[in-house]
Specification:
With 275 residues, the chain is of the alpha/beta class. Helix content is 35%, strand content 16%. The protein has a single domain, classed as Metal-dependent hydrolases (TIM Barrel, Alpha-Beta Barrel), CATH 3.20.20.140. The strands form two sheets. An eight-stranded parallel β-sheet has the order 1-2-3-4-5-6-9-10. Strand 7 (157-160) and strand 8 form a beta hairpin. Helix 3 packs across helix 4.
Length: 275
């Protein structure tokens, strides 16, 4: 089974007035579930984790309800500090966890404690300044399942390239890399292998990130990393199939069992809680 562990689906603003609009997702842009279905079928992908553009849950929640077992959803935190309201929102929408873009206003301890007690996931994309706080969260909340987005790379200067894809201006390797790899000491932390196209300074297969990927996998082990495409940003360049091929390009020494875990088995265990 192949699972795409992090991607985005959304309608145009005209069809979904509540959805977030930004530089990579202007009002007229769309990436509907139907396009995802076609793409997954063409590449033999069986399931996916859907992440909205912002705190609007409706479209992703509906997709999860219509395709039980095939899709899981991750909500985007809206800054709500009332842990009970956050838990009610996740329960009402069927979201498996909550995405946070670091802790710019400080760690929302009550919310994270509730996620841990409810068995919900923290889908985390930290800023460079958040790394020490992430360590503290993992120390204090060993029952909180933390999933680091985009190969554990931290947000640098976020821009948009000429293909309307995210572009992260960051040195490779990042100054934060060693501290992020240090999070492997906490067994509740896992990593999504994605976002290479946005961080790399070289064309596919992004050779400047191959070493980063290998070091992350060596630190966390093949049982705590999950492949993802970051659909739809990669459809035109380099293409969905090439994002799938990156596992073999960057990790050529995987055994068949390890490769199967990275490409899907780990996601089914961590996100769907299947043994």
């Amino acid at each position: 089974m192949i699972v795409d562990a992090h991607l985005h689906v959304f309608l145009s603003k005209a069809d979904d007035p509540d959805r977030t609009v930004d530089a990579i997702a202007p009002a007229e842009r769309s990436a509907p579930v139907e396009l995802l279905e076609e793409t997954m079928a063409a590449h033999g992908v069986d399931a996916a984790v859907l992440v909205p553009l912002g705190p609007e849950d409706g479209y992703v929640s509906d997709a999860v309800r219509r395709h039980p077992g095939r899709y899981a959803g991750i909500g985007v935190w809206d800054g709500e500090q009332d842990a009970g309201k956050v838990a009610d929102r996740l329960a009402a929408t069927g979201m498996r966890g909550l995405r946070m873009f670091g802790f710019p206003a400080g760690v929302p301890w009550a919310v994270l404690e509730r996620l841990a007690s409810d068995g919900s996931l923290l889908w985390l994309y930290p800023r460079p300044d958040d790394v020490e706080e992430v360590h503290e969260v993992c120390r204090r909340l060993p029952d909180l399942a933390v999933v680091l987005n985009h190969t554990g790379l931290t947000q640098g200067g976020i821009g948009v390239d000429d293909r309307l894809r995210p572009r992260i201006e960051s040195d490779i390797p990042q100054p934060t890399e060693a501290r992020i790899r240090g999070l492997a000491a906490y067994p509740n932390v896992s990593v999504i292998l994605s976002g290479s196209y946005a961080f790399s300074h070289q064309p596919w297969p992004y050779p400047d990130l191959a070493g980063v990927t290998r070091r992350v996998v060596e630190a966390f082990g093949t049982e705590r990393v999950m492949w993802a495409s970051d659909f739809p940003w990669i459809l035109d360049d380099p293409g969905y199939g090439r994002m799938l091929e990156l596992v073999d390009q960057h990790l050529p020494g995987l055994s068949p069992t390890e490769r199967a875990a990275v490409l899907g088995g780990n996601a089914r265990r961590i996100v769907w809680e299947e043994e």
